[in-house]
Amino acid sequence: MTVRPGCPFCEGPGGRVVFEGAKLRVIHAEEAGFPAFYRVIWREHAPEFSDLGASDRVLCMEAVTVVEQCLREQLAPAKINLAALGNMVPHLHWHVIARFAWDSHFPSPFWAAAQRAAPADRVAAVQALLPKAEAEMVRRLAPFQG
């Protein structure tokens, strides 16, 4: 496996691990005000999506789709944001973020300036739903194990 010294996603999980497969992992990121912020992280060090072969690109996007579907089904967000920026950490990873009309930045991107404080009760309500959403992610990602 290709590992780049100094890369935080090569040297550590990048968050609380929800699923670990042979080629990718799904983590829950601790991002204040965004209770349902996940990343699908490619295990091998690859800076860009086009560094993957065709079958691995399909596999990666299928995993992103599973995470998105589980968040939509379990949390009923206003929108799902998908992003693969990699400017700060040039290791292939996709952000999958459930967004809510009440979140601190909505409708602006999560990296924009906050427009309001996220209501603690609504954040807590979403957090309470995450175990069920994550269990469903793990169930659907089981074929990605090997």
**Nearest-angstrom radius of gyration?**
15 Å
CATH topology: HIT family, subunit A
Q: Care to count the β-strands?
A: 5
| CATH homolog superfamily | HIT-like
CATH secondary-structure class: Alpha Beta
What gap, in angstroms, lies between the N and C termini?
A: 15 Å
Structure explained in plain terms:
There is one protein chain. 33% of the residues lie in helices and 19% in strands. The chain contains three helices and five strands; from the N terminus they run αβββαββα. The longest helix has 22 residues, at 54-75. Strands 1-2-3-5-4 form a five-stranded antiparallel beta sheet, with helices on one face. Helix 2 (54-75) packs across helix 3 (120-141). The protein has helices at 8-11, 54-75, 120-141; strands at 16-20, 24-28, 37-42, 79-83, 93-99. The relative contact order is 0.20. The chain has a single domain, classed as 2-Layer Sandwich (HIT family, subunit A), CATH 3.30.428. The chain is of the alpha+beta class. The protein is globular, with a radius of gyration of 15 Å.
Structural topology:
Elements: H1 8-11, E1 16-20, E2 24-28, E3 37-42, H2 54-75, E4 79-83, E5 93-99, H3 120-141
Antiparallel strand pairs: 1-2, 2-3, 3-5, 4-5
